[in-house]
From TrEMBL, chain A:
Source organism per UniProt: Thioclava nitratireducens
Family annotation (InterPro entries): DctM, TRAP_DctM
Record flagged with keyword Protein transport: no
PANTHER family the record matches: C4-DICARBOXYLATE TRAP TRANSPORTER LARGE PERMEASE PROTEIN DCTM, SIALIC ACID TRAP TRANSPORTER PERMEASE PROTEIN SIAT-RELATED
Signal peptide boundaries: none
Protein name per its UniProtKB record: TRAP transporter large permease protein
Pfam families found in the cross-reference section: DctM (PF06808)
Localization, UniProt: Cell inner membrane
Domain TRAP C4-dicarboxylate transport system permease DctM subunit: 8-428
Keyword terms, alphabetized: Cell inner membrane, Cell membrane, Membrane, Transmembrane, Transmembrane helix, Transport
Membrane topology: Multi-pass membrane protein
Subunit structure: The complex comprises the extracytoplasmic solute receptor protein and the two transmembrane proteins.
TrEMBL record, chain C:
Family recorded in the similarity comment: Belongs to the TRAP transporter small permease family.
Compartments, record wording: Cell inner membrane
Chain ranges passing through the membrane: 7-34, 40-62, 83-104, 124-144
Pfam families xrefs: DctQ
Subunit: The complex comprises the extracytoplasmic solute receptor protein and the two transmembrane proteins.
InterPro entries: DctQ, TRAP_DctQ
Keyword annotations of the record: Cell inner membrane, Cell membrane, Membrane, Transmembrane, Transmembrane helix, Transport
Protein name per the record: TRAP transporter small permease protein
Residue ranges of every copy of the Tripartite ATP-independent periplasmic transporters DctQ component domain listed in the record: 20-144
Chain's role: Part of the tripartite ATP-independent periplasmic (TRAP) transport system.
Entry membrane topology: Multi-pass membrane protein
Amino acid sequence: MTISLVAFAILLALVFLRVPIAFAMALVGGAGFAWMRGAEAAGSMVGSAVFETGMNYSLSVVPLFIFMGNVLAGSGIASGLFTGADRVFGRMRGGLAMATILSCGGFSAVCGSSLATAATMSKVAMPSMRRFGYHDSLATGAIAAGGTLGILIPPSVIMIIFGLLTESDIGKLFIAGIVPGVLGIGLYLVSVMVAVRLNPKLAPEVREPLAMKRQDIVGVLATLGLFVFIMVGIYGGFFTPIEAAGMGAAAAVLIAAAVGGLRLGALWRALTDAAIASAMIFAIVIGAEIFGNFVTFAGLPDALAELVYNLGLGGYEVIIIIVLIYMLLGMVLESLSMILLTVPIFYPVIYQLDFGSGLLANPDNALIWFAVIVVVATEISLITPPVGMNVFVLRSVLPDVTLGTMFRGILWFWVADIVRISLIVAFPVISLWLVG
Amino acid sequence: EGVDLVLSSWLPPRHPIVVDAIKPWAKDIEKATEGRVRIRVLAKPLGSPPAHFDMARDGVADITYGLHSFTQDDRFKNSRVGQFSFLGNDAVSMSEAFWTVYTEKLGAEKEHAGTHLLGLFNHGPGMVHNNKRPINKIEDLQGLKMRVPGGYIADLMSHFGVETIFTPSGEVYEKLSRGVVDGVTFPYDAIASFNLADYLKYTTTIPGGIYNTTWFLVMNSGKWDAISPADQEAINKLSGLAFATRVGKAWNGADERGKKAAKEGGMVAETAPQGVLDAIKQEASVLEGQWADSLGGDYDGRAALAEFRKMTGVDV
Amino acid sequence: MIARGRFVLEAIAAGLVTGLILVTCFDVVGRYLFNNPLTGAYEITQVLLGALVFVAMPLTTGKGGHVEVDLLMPILPPVLRRMLGRIGSAIAALVMLYFAWRLVILTQDQFHTQLATSGLGIKLWYFGVIGVLSFAVSALVAVLRRPE
Ligand code: NA
Ligand code: NA
């Protein structure tokens, strides 16, 4: 336990001193492993982690889901979706921020990646919000938080990884995310209303809403059509959730070319940007794998599991502790690495917990409920400083907004997330309702 | 004073082999050495399943287990003695035979060079499960899309016109439920452990099994040498043949649960009729011959197979 | 020179992403329309993905696309900021160089045993070689890049 904590401290120091996260994790993990096992064993472990991560079939969804988002962003579909959503809230103060949340939700329903959702919406929504005089903090906060919905509302990279790690039914996991995702949209909308009520400077006076244009209708309908295509494909038994990434990407190109005005140049950028973003994510997964092997070897998982057992706690108490652990880890870890590190440790524990009678008496239900909790905790980590991936994505698109401004704006939505995760823990039916 | 060993385990933590064989074996070793040799089973594997042999060799972990067919190369060529058809009807006798034949007749130690060999084993008899039709004649296999683990059974099935598809075992459920595959070759245990009964209808059993997979349990040689001779002796008593018996029982228990799940799920099991068996026998002997002829120098593959079948009581 | 190299890598990466999409489409469409799925779709996806990650790694590195935490940066003087950036890049480059070196060892092993994928028998050492080149070039790019 001590050596793991020391390693975490060194990792944090390196990360703050501008060493890219992926390589900081690889360095600390590799060096720690070498310290315990010798350099040759560590080298062998590092070599296979690098090679095998690249060839990991289930991670093929990463480039494809990101590409899908890029296609919709590169055509007129994403901006049509946004202006379409703006029509709904045009007459309210903070309406554009609410439209951002709503279109993030819509976009999430066709895109499996939170990063792609945040990147797309920052390109689409940010210019409008700036033009109409929204404060940068509210604008970026809404995009970063709205972007997190990408991994809760199906399809979702994280749900697929969770399903494969725990051998659970990915189709059911997807369905379980829908109600909590809609709840998330609702609470975020409330956050915007509260924020502009308490601090009117965040948003401009109400303006006349724009008239619905053809492009807006196309954007909304194309998104809806793509969502239906993916859902019917998965639940009609035509393709697996992993294949949905490839099929969805192809469908997105066809739809964007047919009605969204997708040009060849935009397609080229969508392809290369997806490749570049994927290499960034894979580098982090490689680093997380190496660091994870080190902390596993150092016995951190066993120490945590033992802690949970020795305290002799009930089911809900354990879940609350696990959520708190996720909140802490979420500060320093990137989402995918957090899942890869923690889920294998916690899910056997979940199986053995006693939740009394009711929905959770069935351990498979308990696991689906736990999946939703993990994904929401992961969403929160995406916007929790210092390592908030969605914020970094925004930062790369908007280099002139400081991280401090962004995190200030995010605070409103962060509070909504805490409310949401509490509701989801307290009422398992929110997650299990549609699963049946 | 003593030796702490780390075991990297890639099967799901609740898998019967982990719960009923690996962990109890580790505990018994600790008891037998009066706590001088302690084995810690890690919560999460330190690499992908196929990497596990190299991991023990290179000292990434001290003890690992895995399938010989994970790596598509000729490193464990002689282990294929335990992967053919008609090898036995339960995992205990097959695992015992595999350990004995592979170590005594086919140079198992040499093929596992760089590690200390602790155990070798098989799972229960492999069978054919599908959701299209019972296999009453060999032509019924024609055109079925089947998930196979590769190696011998893939060659055998393709010969009979099966469209073979490779996918990790964890994804079989998704593939079956969406009609990507019509069936699988698996021992009974998989019906329960991968929850497949809803999407399968017909089980065709073959006396002696239509295929098998072979497994190893190895330790890093450096770590083995660091253990005192007395404790090595104590570990040996629990390993090798004794471990084959232990893990065989665990597989048999898993097969029982799988059989029950299949029955509850309404699957129909039938023994393959004579015509089907004859066709399989014919092709099997061709493939066995090819393998035996390809073995280097002093190894007699045919004699080893005959010995294997004598030990498990299977007549071909 | 650099621009041309970048364009070539981008073109290959774009082709690989397209390939990933097409493999799934041929597999799924073939399965339903012609009852003829793409044999080995799983393995083709694996190797395309591996190649994609390796090919894109220098591009990501060159773009400064690896995630850094620059939360402290606004309060530091520019000189110190740039220095930290340099050190960070140098550490990243060393780690990538080590990756390349370990892949050399791994690739030798793969070549020696002629390790291949289960179904189609695609030799893995090809991808080992691509990986070695990828991380060696990425390390070089990381050192040469000017941080803001
Ligand atoms: Na989504
Ligand atoms: Na975070």
